[in-house]
Amino acid sequence: MAQDIIREEPARASLIYDPKVRGIFFQVVLMAALALGLWWIVGNTIENLHRSHIATGFGFLRGRAGFDISNTLIDYSSDSSYGDALVVGVLNTIIVAVAGIITATIVGFLVGIGRLSKNWLIRKLATVYIEIFRNIPPLLVILFWYQGVLALLPNVRDSYSLPFGSYLNNRGFYFPRFVWGEGSWLVLAGLVLGVALSWYVARRARARQMATGQQFPVFWTSVALIVGLPLLAFMLTGFPLSFDLPKKGTFNLTGGLNVKPEFLSLYLALSFYTASFIAEIVRAGIIGVPKGQTEAYSALGLRSGLGLRLVIIPQAMRIIIPPLTSQYLNLTKNSSLAVAIGYPDLYAIGGTILNQTGQAIEVVVVFMVVYLGISVLTSLLMNWFNTKMALKER
Amino acid sequence: MQEHDMAWVRTEMALAEAAPRSQVGPGAWMRRNLFATPVDSVLTIFALLLIAWALPQILNWLFFGAVWTGADRTACLTTEQGGQLPAGWSGACWPFVSGRFGQFMFGRYPVDQRWRVILTGLIFIALLAPLLIPRAPFKRLNAILFFAVFPFVAFFLLVGGWFGLRFVETPLWGGLMVTLVISYVGIVVSLPLGILLALGRRSKMPIVKLLSVIFIEAVRGVPLVTVLFMASFMLPLFVPPGVSFNKLLRALIGVALFASAYMAEVVRGGLQAIPKGQYEGADSLGLTYWQKMGFIVMPQALKLVIPGIVNTFIGMFKDTTLVLIISMFDLLGVVKQNISGDPTWATPQTAKTGYVFAAAIFWVFCFSMSRYSQYMERRLDTGHKR
Questions:
Q1: Which of these ranges, A288-292, B134-138, B315-319, B357-361, has the smallest mean pLDDT?
Q2: pLDDT in tens, B133-149
Q3: Which of residues 322-341 of B touch A (CB under 8 A)?
Q4: B270 pLDDT band (50/70/90 cuts)?
Q5: Can you list the alpha helix ranges (DSSP code H) found in chain B?
Q6: A47 contacts B240? CB cut-off 8 A
Q7: In this prediction, does ipTM exceed 0.95?
Q8: Helix (H, G, I), strand (E, B) or coil at A245
Q9: What single DSSP character describes residue B192?
């Protein structure tokens, strides 16, 4: 019987069993189903829009907005257009995201390193922080700060006075504004020059150390350049700086800069929430560097601080950067929770516009474009940083 | 060779002496773990000061200074505010939570029908518990009951309208019940859908691959708020006029789609970690695509990514709170509604109390999920890790 089988011609596989044919067939069916579905959806949408008399297209962006926004970076009034309102929203989203990212990174790195500390108490404190914050929804933390803490601050008349002429009350945090006088551009120029020179010095010092082995105190030179040059310019131009201090009135504080409680709640909640995730990433990154590396730098005679800086951290960064990027993106996306407390970010403003015009599709398209745009930009930036830090194999 | 005339040779071992005082005991432990270096000492003292400052305040607020009984807001007001408590008092107002506990759990679900929710919850626990205990028997039957049969039972019980049960419309639902319903549906839908999307993304068919990539990246690139927003404002536009979508259903669709995209990326990570030889081995055995994935690749890949899957679940559980933005009342939504919309309990401490209570519930759920995933990870560790 076995011989029969061997002698038989190999059966020609039927076309049905050819994976290629099957693949093509399956994809054609999928495309057809998708096209049908889309056609159905588009048809329904057009009819629905027509029935409820909703305009289509992006013409509405030029229409008068008619609502006020509390936090604006650019000139905006209720007479501005919807387009302007959206720009204000995008800027507000970016501000809170950038501020949050910076704080979350600093807190996250500190806590992450604290979790690896040899000090038992610090280690436990860091663990408690992480376990509490990453297991509570960020929206809850935002509302807690907003309604539970900041709303209980005294009103303007009984504001808490803080150092440097700043005040804290239930309308937010007030602090002095710098007013730059005549010739202050020189200070800025000094700063730019200082940074440029330090960069150049660092490059030269590195090249020299590579060639001759001689070291150069780059750090202190840079500090001197970056702090010294602007200071020199500041003195030369005769201290062109004054402060616009917030002054207490009966009903409101005038002057100075004001950070609204909406921003503060959102910023604090997002920073501390994301920091707990960053801390875990940092810990995983440092643990991920093999112990042999520590032994190797000790064997080379490097002190632990220097070894950490030159050997361990560059390798840990390779592990840290990709997940860190996604945390940054998460923070940016979570900033849309602002809508719950009325901080006018892109999402909140878009929602208002939607309520006024009913143009849901266009507004959602704007959301998609902006958020995807921010995501792509952040990813590109972090990927660039990642390639710079990546292992260069020769 | 030399022979010694040994005067004395010890025949038994000397008794071990106790370790030096500097090496064991609480003193040594403190020296090693708290005061090893000057920097450590400073840090320890600083941390101790922080704890000494914060902990009494927290405990006082939560327990010792808190109000435990009362009928309305006057129980939690100070003399200045028109109540009985000393001026400057600050503490939790627990009667607010106990008075509104039913709402926090069930929303506006009719009181005489709440046994249905409790029954559903009990069935849920009865099915989930043996599923989580590795030694419990009948895993396959249990899983089928939990993932395939339970949804229908829960639907009939909660919605009603059949078998003499009263119909309870979903706008009346609320509280922890809605949070759990959304999470459960999200988990049950997102896992299979995520696996399909992950397979699609690694498929050799270009169109399938392209569609999967577009879906995954578009959903992952925008916040969940936007997805929910789309689900609540655009879905009604997509269906023929006259057909109306249940609000809860819209939220469920939004959450499930969102979670699937994240799940897909987690599963893809697992698929990529499986050595090529496993795929080739399955092919050389003549297995079809689905057999290969179902019997060879997926069991290994899913095992690898259990922590990632559970993290997605935890994230989704926390994200269910976002439905309050499209004005639905999950646990957080009900708490917020009671805080800002109910004058019976309007005191300065109500908001803090309510949110601390909600936070505690969310924390217990998330923390137990993450602990369980760590336990499973250790149990299933079959040598992939070095």
A1: B134-138
A2: 888 788 888 888 888 88
A3: 322, 324-325, 332, 336, 339-340
A4: confident
A5: 25-33, 38-59, 94-99, 101-106, 114-132, 139-144, 150-159, 176-201, 206-221, 224-233, 235-238, 247-273, 276-284, 289-291, 298-304, 306-319, 331-340, 350-380
A6: yes
A7: no
A8: coil
A9: H
Chain B environment of A368 (Cβ under 8 Å): 218, 221-222, 226
Residue with tokens 């436990």: A124
For residues A17-56, b (16+ Cβ closer than 10 Å) or e, as one string? eeeeeebeeebeeeeeeeeeeeeeeeebbeebbeeeeeee
Q: Which residue of A has its CA nearest to B209?
A: A27
> Considering only CA atoms, which of A128, A101, A73, A118 is closest in space to residue A275?
A101
Contact by Cβ (8 Å): B104, B97:
yes
Assign domain B98-109+168-380 to its CATH architecture. Answer: Orthogonal Bundle (1.10)
Q: Please give the pLDDT value at position B302.
A: 85
Q: Count CA atoms within 13 Å of residue B53 on its CB side.
A: 6
Q: Report CA B345 to chain centroid distance, whole Å.
A: 29
pLDDT of residue B4: 64
Q: pTM (2 decimals)?
A: 0.83
Exposed (0-12), middle (13-18) or buried (19+): which is B268, by Cβ within 10 Å?
A: buried
| Residue whose pair of structure tokens reads 């996604």 in the numeric block | A326
Asked if residue A150 lies in contact with residue A210, where contact means CB atoms within 8 angstroms, the answer is: no
Q: Which of A120, A123, A131, A366 to mutate to probe the B interface, most B CBs <10 Å? A: A120
Cα gap B10→A374, rounded to integer Å: 80
* Residue boundaries of the structural domains of chain B: 21-64, 98-109+168-380
State pLDDT tens for residues B188-210.
899 899 999 999 988 888 888 88
Distance between CA atoms of residues A231 and A235, nearest Å: 6
Domain locations in chain A as residue ranges:
2-43, 82-137+260-389
The CATH number of domain A82-137+260-389, selected from 3.40.50.1000, 1.10.3720.10, 3.30.70.270, 1.10.10.10:
1.10.3720.10
